[in-house]
Amino acid sequence: MKSLRHRAEYGALRGLVRALGVVPWGSAGRVGASVGALGFRPLGVRRRVVERQIAAAFPELSEEQVAEMARASYRHLGQSAIETALLPGLGQAGVLRLVSEVENWEAVERAQAGGKGIVVVAGHLGNWELAAAYMAARGIPLDVIVRRMGNPLFDAYLNQTREQLGVKVVYDAQAVRHTPRALREGRAVGFVADQGVRGLASTFVPFFGRPAKTPRGAAVFALRFGSPVVFATALRKPDGTYLVGFEDIPVIDTGNRESDVDALVLRFTRVLEKWVRRAPEQYFWQHRRWRRQPPDTPPELRDPAAEPT
Questions:
Q1: Which residue, 20, 51, 229, 308, could crosslink 28 as a Cys pair with Cβ 3.0–4.6 Å?
Q2: Residue 15: what pLDDT?
Q3: Taking a C-beta distance cutoff of 8 angstroms, is the pair 135, 108 a contact?
């Protein structure tokens, strides 16, 4: 249902996109970064969550360094939001030009050659929307599993931008029915799999040394259909272009489905952590990654963003 608030928020977004659509790409990104920085200061939106999580993940950082990384994460978030909104204006050719460095595209080619589809896993790192658009622009038939956004107008607009760039959108409620068919057809199916939400089949695996609830869906489908798993990400470089990277995630079927799924989720999470360490300011620290943990989690490994009791 579209409320007055939804319409006002959407109207503000479209107005900003129209205004920035006529300025150079780099300038638009800088405006987005400046808007994002307001979330750090003066607004302080989830700032305590962000700083506590960064400090827990990187205990070697000083308080000042933690604050600087937190500020950079807000700037990155604002810039990425604007870039994502403007991507359709670039078209697929523009997306390809935006990527100045590619690591291990061969992993995608090997996976595609197997004929069993590809399970693509990503985290909330860099610009995950650009990573998907890049794969589509390179000719990979790609479906992405997404959750509905709270604002239905935002939701429709974002999905329209994805479709314009060749990425097919599938809501998570349809994933169980859609994914098997897509994999059998040799398509790639993308999952952003690093947020444990209530009601979603998940397992607990270490992320920066602390147990974090992590979705199992991508691993379940890969093992059930014998599909290869490829990690994908897009990291912004200092010059504003992107490095897009891919990595094989071994799928090992021992016959014990439950433990095999958990092991695959763990392997993916380790790869994600490795890439987060390459550009920690580009991770989505605004989400409480360790909010849901096993009840027997030791006190020293509990959610660092939780308010003390």
A1: 20
A2: 83
A3: yes
For residues 79, 304, 66, 29, the Cα torsion angle rounded to the nearest 10 degrees is 0
Residue 50 tokens read as: 């962000």
276 closest CA partner among 128, 145, 136: 128
Q: Residues of the chain with pLDDT > 70: what percent?
A: 98
**C-alpha span between 101 and 120 (Å, rounded):** 19
| Band (1; pLDDT cuts 50, 70, 90) | low
Distance of CA 19 to the CA centre of its chain: 27
Closest of 291, 218, 282, 204 to residue 249, by C-alpha: 218
CA dihedral 146, 169, 281, 44 (to 10 degrees): -60
Are 135 and 188 in contact by the 8 Å Cβ rule? The answer is: yes
- The tokens of 107 are what? 């992993």
DSSP string for 161-200: HHHHTTEEEEEGGGHHHHHHHHHHTT-EEEEE-----TTS
Query: Which residue has 């890439």 as its token pair?
Result: 275
The pLDDT value given to residue 60: 98
14, HSE (Cβ side, Cα atoms, 13 Å)? 11
β-bridge pairing 118-122 and 188-192? parallel
